[in-house]
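Entry 14: structure prediction run for Sn-glycerol-3-phosphate ABC transporter ATP-binding protein UgpC. Input pasted below.
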Amino acid sequence: MGSVSLKNVSKSFGSVKVIHDVSLEIDEGEFCVLIGPSGSGKSTLLRIIAGLEDVSSGNISIGKRHVTDLPPKQRDIAMVFQTYALYPQMTVRENMGFALKLAGLPKAQINTKVTEVARMLELDQLLERLPKELSGGQRQRVSMGRAIVRNPSVFLFDEPLSNLDAKLRVQVRGEIADLHRRLQTTSVYVTHDQVEAMTLGQKIVVLKDGRVEQVGKPLELYDDPVNTFVASFLGTPTINLIEAEVTGLGDACAARLPDGTLTPLGQSNGCTTGQKILFGIRPEHARLSLEDQPGAIRARIHAVENTGSDMVVFNDAEGFRITSAFKEQRTLEPGASVSILPDPAKIRIFDAATGKRIRRSEDA
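Run finished. Output tokens:
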């Protein structure tokens, strides 16, 4: 196993800079997820680690070795692609053992390794089949098996589940998590899917336009986002961000929402009276009641989404919309009048001009 270290890495294609001075430390044995929207630079960064793209500036280390100028085959990495990249004319056994064959390992040793990994991935009954005879999930497991048999220092995953249907994504995601627990190999995983990031990652790196917005554990980023981009990118349904204005409330301050509702903010580090802010509250922290509640946001239900396990309610207040989400089943109809009470401990406020988080003394 090996750690991965990026120091001030930048990448340009011609005059277009796509990676901006990225520094990142991935510990040995850690599962790190790179997440961001299309064009954020996450796949380019993964290809830079793999050696498939050179850097314009900066340095890369794997373990204690500087690998910035080394070709992929000398970096001791194995990559799993979203397109499986299997040789169609080779059997599962031959695909999984091909890299070992190129390395000159004895046939008996190759067969032993392939059989062991195939059993681990429940592919041992499929070893003589061709890729065209496999399902999408089976092909992706063969692709992972081909990486595992090499016993690399680092696994690199480039959106490996994007070609699978929803049910298979859940299954293979669980298999990847289980493999990491067993193998403890350093892994770098690229995805645009926040569910994959939150369930697989021990560390998440949020990227935007080739820059690192925030790095941390999944729940740290979810509960403690540094800006509106991170807050909005993680979480389904997305966080409510409501335009508001700071006003005094005794010795503390409050947010005046567009409908005139005053919501206490407590002591804030950096708020000034009259400042324009974005009032952030996640849907699961916006409690909905059919009864009048003092200090609540008054609204009418616009629409209800019921998935069986979850209910999401879109509510129209005066001048803004606010979403609530909860687990319990309730009879709710569009047009009904409701009160919405944000959990004071879960309110997050952001500067409207910069999008940066404004800290409160109540914030965890």
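Notes: The longest helix spans residues 166-183. Will compare against the previous run tomorrow.
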